[in-house]
Automatic annotation (TrEMBL):
<protein>
    <submittedName>
        <fullName>Sialate O-acetylesterase</fullName>
    </submittedName>
</protein>
<dbReference type="InterPro" id="IPR036514">
    <property type="entry name" value="SGNH_hydro_sf"/>
</dbReference>
<dbReference type="Pfam" id="PF03629">
    <property type="entry name" value="SASA"/>
</dbReference>
<dbReference type="InterPro" id="IPR005181">
    <property type="entry name" value="SASA"/>
</dbReference>
<keyword id="KW-0378">Hydrolase</keyword>
<feature type="domain" description="Sialate O-acetylesterase">
    <location>
        <begin position="35"/>
        <end position="281"/>
    </location>
</feature>
<dbReference type="GO" id="GO:0016788">
    <property type="term" value="F:hydrolase activity, acting on ester bonds"/>
</dbReference>
<dbReference type="InterPro" id="IPR052940">
    <property type="entry name" value="Carb_Esterase_6"/>
</dbReference>
Length: 287
């Protein structure tokens, strides 16, 4: 009887251990998880409107960027990885929140982690330019050539270009989050959170991502404390988590601005980028 009891206990123990066993990850999967990728989109502040200063030109080689268009001035080819020396979007752009997002992330992450960013942003665009089903209705918001040329540089479809590059990146790494800075062109439009929700959900579906694994971080525009021209948009931006449970709003309070009171200056952009990173690190459980 005693022997049977011992055998039964051993059987139960083995069964319990077996239930908790999970398939081991392959070396390739483990390597991909160490390359964390973030998608960035929006309008001029995300595009990069702040002056790139000398201190911004040196980056940790573990911080990478994938150009979303060819850039002869920087000897960059679309769809390849390079050290994330600004600009991170178009060749003619400036400093953006993505710059100091990546730098701040690496300050707190293990040394075997690499951060990669992919940015598609167009100054002056309506958020619906990123809606894959209606983007063609928003390609002529500004009749001037500068606006049309920016869209043409993305093959006429900025959203499709972002998804194309993201799929390339997924072969080497894991998409961990999406960074958005947009709202000035949609100022006071209370439907903006719904527009963002559509774009976010399309991104998740097109890239086979789970919202619980890929949060959306959305930054406020220049606020009232900086006499922001579009500050009235911030209360609407702050309702985004009511529409998207995995969305988080990044405060712009105290982030200094350029003379137009629409765009952040270099110091303001650096601070805003750090705040995006601090929120992402918090969500990852890293203090």
């Amino acid at each position: 009887m005693k022997k049977n009891t011992i055998l039964m206990c051993c059987f139960i123990l083995i069964s319990l251990i077996g239930c908790k066993t999970t398939p081991s990850k392959s070396a390739e999967e483990m390597k991909k998880e160490k390359f964390q990728i973030y998608l960035c989109f929006g309008q001029s502040n995300m595009e990069g409107s702040a002056t790139i200063e000398e201190q911004d030109k040196t980056v940790n080689p573990r911080f990478k960027m994938m150009p979303t268009m060819d850039c002869a001035d920087f000897d960059r080819k679309q769809g390849q990885w390079y050290d994330a020396v600004p600009p991170l979007s178009q060749c003619w752009a400036g400093l953006s929140p993505a710059d100091y997002f990546g730098r701040t992330m690496l300050e707190k992450l293990p040394e075997d982690i690499t951060i990669g960013v992919i940015s598609v942003a167009i100054g002056g665009c309506d958020i619906r330019l990123f809606d894959k089903n209606s983007y063609q209705d928003y390609t002529d918001i500004y009749p001037e050539a500068w606006f049309g040329d920016k869209i043409k540089a993305y093959g006429g479809n900025p959203y499709a270009r972002l998804i194309e590059m993201a799929k390339l990146a997924q072969k080497e790494g894991v998409i961990k989050g999406i960074l958005l800075h947009q709202g000035e062109t949609n100022q006071d439009d209370e439907q903006w959170p719904n527009y963002v929700k559509t774009v976010y959900e399309n991104m998740l579906a097109d890239l086979s991502l789970d919202a619980n694994d890929v949060p959306l971080l959305a930054g406020e525009v220049v606020g009232e404390d900086q006499e922001g021209v579009c500050a009235s948009m911030n209360p609407i931006i702050n309702t985004l988590p009511d529409f998207i449970s995995t969305a988080h709003v990044i405060s712009s309070k105290g982030c200094t601005v350029r003379e137009d009171h629409v765009h952040f200056n270099a110091a303001g952009v650096r601070e805003l980028g750090k705040r995006y990173a601090e929120k992402m690190l918090f969500l990852e459980g890293i203090k």
